[in-house]
Amino acid sequence: MSSNLLDSGIDEVLSTVLAEASGEVYMVNPSREGVESFVAVATEFDGELPSVRLLADERTLKDVMEDFIVASNAADLVADGSLSFRTLDESPENSLLITGDRVVAVVAAGDRVGGLATDDEGFVEAATEAYADRWDAAEEFTLRTPPISRVRETLAEEISEEAEADFVAILDSLETARGDGEGLDEVTISLLVAAKNDALLYDISKWGEDVGIASKATFSRTKTRLEEMGLIDTEKVPIDVGRPRLRLKIGDDRLRGAEGGDLAANAQDVLG
Predict the structure, then answer these.
(1) What is the pTM of this model?
(2) Residue 72 has pLDDT above 90, yes or no
(3) What does the alpha-carbon distance between residue 137 and residue 89 come to, in Å, rounded to a whole number?
(4) I need a surface site. Which of 28, 33, 71, 250 has the fewest CB within 10 A?
């Protein structure tokens, strides 16, 4: 038996396995918390990440990836070639991490998590072959969220560097970005950032559609809802041809002058 990782916490188990991995890594049947932890650990990983093949229940992946923070960081890992997803038709009983030289069963006991490991050569080889076959037969899970690095780069280019800094500051202040009462969603954050920086609705919605955050129609509907709630205002900006465009402005006094976490917190208070 190789060293067990007892009472370590899922982040520590994942960090240790990634740091010591030889060859490709299979992450099999992780929980929602396991997927979230993996993305966080891999995003902050200091060193060269091994290639990780993540096999999980489709419902789990869809649920986790509704959080823009998790999904956009996962998309960066996919773009880098460090991560790929496929879905399990039938989930095994255990959550497993399989590397070139060991198998680790991730075991939760209440609020404690440990990794039970074996480096038995025959067992590791059999497990690797079994899940390589399941991987080959599995359906690919495609992320619909753009990589956070591309979001930041294009926002700075298309709107402003100040808008990009505000976007990042808001994300950094949030635990989740779902828009389901637990956090602001990515469209709302984009519109608040645009309003703080006096950007045009046309520009932010075109950027959002081009980068893959949401359609122009979704930006328009969300703008209307935020305007009705008093979070943002608009003013008409005449153009040479066609209808005037709308410049977004902060509408609520609690948001004026607020930065980062305060802007997010105050907006959430208004949104309820």
Answers:
(1) 0.92
(2) yes
(3) 10
(4) 33
